Amino acid sequence: MKILISPPMRFGKDFTGAARRTLEVYSRFKEDEVYLCVDSNTLPYADDEIKVLLSNFHLVNSYNTSRFNYLKGFVQCLKQAKKVDVILSYSECSLSIIYSYFLSLFARKPLIIFVHHVTEEIRGDTNYYFLLKLAFSRSKGIICLDNPEVKEELEKLFPGKKIVTSTNGVNVDQYYTSEEKICDGLFIGDYGERKGVKYLSAIWNLVNKKGNYKLCILGRKWEGKELPKNSIYLGFVSERKKREILAKSKVFVFPSLYEGYSLVVAEALASYLPVVTWDLPWSERFKKGVIKVKFDDVNQFVQVIIELLVD
After folding, report:
1. Residue 89, Cβ neighbours under 10 Å: how many?
2. Which of 29, 41, 215, 226 has the most CB atoms around it within 10 Å of its CB?
3. What are the domain boundaries of the chain?
4. What is the CA radius of gyration of the chain?
5. 17: closest CA among 274, 198, 266?
6. 79-124 pLDDT, tens per residue?
7. In the prediction, which pLDDT does 67 show?
8. What distance in Å separates the CA atoms of residue 168 and residue 21, rounded to the nearest whole number?
9. CATH number of 172-310
10. 2-166 and 172-310: identical CATH topology
11. What pLDDT is stored for residue 287 in this prediction?
12. What was the pLDDT predicted at 63?
């Protein structure tokens, strides 16, 4: 089977967890021809470990970060789309799905949409909702993570549509721990309400009333935002550097409100790092090594962190 993955994947600071998971999964499809639309402008910034994964794909040079070359890039992907058996939209972002929808429409090829988590756009909060509905209607089916909360909501939004689940995970052999510690607490995630950043600030500000504890933050979109007390924003780092920071941290602080799977929690556990998070439906899959606090009980969240830090 010949598969085309779209829209053009971005790299460097624009590389997402969904993109990473897509590469890790479909690089194993040795018996199929898997073509990957890539953004030529950011491809040189791909992490060295990501480049190894990319070597398993037939790359289709395109453009996703340049308005001037956007149409030219779409034509490049469309040429390849006409030669494959199916088109896979690897991201649930509205513009990503719509891009893949038009490829499917013009190439007259079936479309499959991967949904990592149900976004507000999929729920209808977007000016492009009409096109999103057309895309899901045209699709042959939806692949989502094996999160019951995600699957149940998709079934309500798209009744009658075939929905299959896929699991997730990390290669634990790549992770480790270290006696040297540079971060008391560690948070990995983009700035946004869904990630619980307001709770993060409230929690860590209270933690620092108990002592001088440093929080390290990895992720995107934190530039110009007010950081929690005694915290440092490390920005976007390589996969290798991220594993090093995980190994050199004491507690993984993750007050996220909603996740599809949460690779970062799996990465923290693989790094022998205790995880403190809310007791919400998304966290049900995680058992050992995760301390779940009753949602909205900030004081209890703080108390758990302090007990771990002084232990």
Report:
1. 26
2. 215
3. 2-166, 172-310
4. 20
5. 266
6. 999 999 999 999 999 999 999 999 999 999 999 999 988 999 999 9
7. 84
8. 8
9. 3.40.50.2000
10. yes
11. 87
12. 94
Q: How much is the average pLDDT of 51-72?
A: 93
Residue whose tokens read 């479909």: 26
Nearest one of 284, 215, 117 to 292, comparing CA atoms: 284
The string of DSSP letters for 160-212 reads: T--EEEE-----GGG----S---EEEEEES-SSGGGTHHHHHHHHHHHTTSS-
Query: Is 2-166 assigned to CATH 3.40.50.2000?
Result: yes
The answer to whether 36 and 5 are in contact (CB under 8 A) is yes
What's the token pair of residue 177?
């721990």
Please tell me the distance from the alpha carbon of residue 205 to that of residue 199, in angstroms, as a whole number: 10
pLDDT at 236: 87
Please say whether the beta carbons of 92 and 154 come within 8 A: no
In sequence order, what are the beta bridge partners of 188? 218
Cα distance between residue 258 and residue 203, in whole Å: 18
Per the prediction, the chain carries an average pLDDT of 95
Take residue 132 and report the two structure tokens written for it. Answer: 């999103």
Are the beta carbons of 124 and 157 closer than 8 angstroms? no
Structure tokens, 307: 């007990």
* % the chain with pLDDT above 90: 86
- Partners of 275 in beta bridges: 252, 290
DSSP for 226-279 reads: PPPTTEEEEES--HHHHHHHHHTEEEEEE--S--SS-HHHHHHHHTT--EEEE-
- Quote the tokens at residue 56: 């398993």
CA-wise closest residue to 79 among 140, 6, 138, 30? 6
Please report the DSSP string for 26-47 in residue order: HTT-TTSEEEEEEETTTGGG--
pLDDT reported for residue 168: 82
Residue listed under structure tokens 């001088």: 212
